[in-house]
Give the backbone structure.
Amino acid sequence: MDYALTDDQRNIREAVLKHCSQFSDEYWLEHDRSGEFPTDFHLSMAEAGWLGIAMPESVGGAGLGISEAAIMVQAVAESGGGMSAASSIHGPVFSLEPIEQFGTEEQQQRMIPPILSGEQKMCFAVTEPNVGLDTTRLKTRAEKVDGGYRVNGEKIWITNAHVANKMMLLARTTPLEECERKTQGLSLFFTDLDRAHIEHRIIPKMGRHAVGSNMLFISDLFIPEEDRIGAEGEGFKIILQGLNPERILLGAEAIGLGRVAIDRAARYARERVVFDRPIGMNQGIQHPLAKCWAQVESANLMVMQAASMFDAGQDCGVQANAGKYLAAEAGFEACHTAMLTLGGMGYAQEYHVERYLREILIPRTAPVSPHMILNFIAEKVLELPKSY
Amino acid sequence: MKVLVAVKRVVDYNVKVRAKADGSDVDLNNVKMAINPFCEIAVEEAVRLKEKGVATEVVVVSIGGKTCQEQIRTALALGADRGIQVEVEGNAEPLVVAKLLKGVVEKEEPQLVILGKQSIDGDNNQTGQMLGALTGMGQGTFASEVVVDGDKVNVTREIDGGLQTVALTLPAIVTTDLRLNEPRYASLPNIMKAKKKPLDVLTPADLGVEVKSHITLLKVEPPAERSAGIKVADVDQLVDKLKNEAKVI
Ligand SMILES: Cc1cc2nc3c(=O)[nH]c(=O)nc-3n(C[C@H](O)[C@H](O)[C@H](O)COP(=O)(O)OP(=O)(O)OC[C@H]3O[C@@H](n4cnc5c(N)ncnc54)[C@H](O)[C@@H]3O)c2cc1C
């Protein structure tokens, strides 16, 4: 049992932190204000090869594991970039997993390298307005036509769809009534985001404004046969492959955000003098921060355990879910405590912690809610009756 | 043309340096270490020379304990070809470093040796000059531009009052100033490649150098804390205080 980072992992962490130091707090604050996608950051990370960290070398990746990918996105968030920075680059790290595992050689070579190089951007379109977390009931319909499929439907919360050229889409190819099992009948596609047939509308939301999420209205979109990943009807099973890595990365990002919040708060507490003493001399300020540190770092152990299990080919569903849950809760507590530590200034944008607080709510609720995680643990670990 | 670059492991420039409680030295416990920024500029310059086709091989050398291999790997990730660690425990002083580097120079026979003008820990600004004296090579210190031209290198130096360009016959020594270049950020593929690049370990004995200290560190203490500022009522009071209390005007 070894809880320390290896030399290589430490190198990766240092190199990513250093890379991110090019992008200042002001850069992220300005992008949060303008809502502009952080193009320079995304491209610089792509050009330096970071997007392919967990993809095999045969498609232009570095062939490392989800552990290293988690360390990378964590450092990205921890640099002060937060969820804005992380969500601008983490998609390719886990969303390409299905192509890597189920795509043909031709598909892998055609689809993956342009995303890793930054030449193309992608989005991941699963959630629908009328379905929510009950993914097997997705309604977006892909009807078989000559040479491919015709797609109609609506998607919601699709991050980066307004800037993407490519879309990973989960859609129904067989009506639910005709399926033997509810997990069947969905198919996965990776295709052009053809704006002649897909209208997008950005959802005004609480934070992470630089990385927008969209409503999508898909009408008569043609998808050629060769853009289907894996067998028809197997889409649900295929995307499950990418879910644990996604949870692990989101958990790692929440830890990164928690760490930077604690760091900013501790720095402020050392320097701010009120009643003739640094506010950090008061235990009422110290203890909440120390507690946050302990919680954030212990959550990190669960996230990293899940990552090493995934890399070792073990089933890590429980750990990945528990890790995401713990990391997001601890990260939230840390951002909230940081804001209170800064007093009135905590509420001012120029001190950055209010932005962290707005952003940490994303890993707290997405891609899966705390409720569903607890449902899952209750059922799988505690063997309690399935409640949903 | 072979280029030799010397790099040093120092406390990261972002870290607030603290003295040990007993004042015996700087506290390095759990402190983030990094490649000395001027050395990083030296590596970058050498790699650019290689990219331009001027240099054929870039060798990095670091003198220190095993941990300085981290900084050698960092330099390899920036594009250097191979590394040499000269195993020395503790903090080697400039003269010892210069003697060891002379040993490496004799072994490797580089045409150009690039060093930082100083390391941000000791701020001695001596090693490059001492190496020049020991080897008899010409030196261009505080470089803000380096142009290799046949068997010469033109080095633009940052000096008081402006810039000075000197032409040195190769082999020569260059020490870098801040404005020479902006070092790149290591890319992931290069970090991966760096792991596979050769890194040799030498001892001072291999280089025929005896490590002998000429300096004894007596005491390290933090600078005095600045006293709090004051608010003045008006310009007259300000002028009065500057004149009669601070005595600066
Ligand atoms: C910023 C952001 C970005 C996103 N990006 C993407 C993206 O790129 N692609 C994509 O496909 N999706 C994306 N999502 C969608 C996200 O994955 C969904 O919001 C999430 O899956 C929840 O779905 P829902 O909002 O429809 O919630 P619902 O399913 O409507 O649930 C509402 C609430 O009810 C609770 N609930 C429901 N059933 C139960 C039960 N049985 N027991 C207990 N509680 C229950 C849930 O936990 C939740 O709190 C994003 C979301 C956000 C906020």
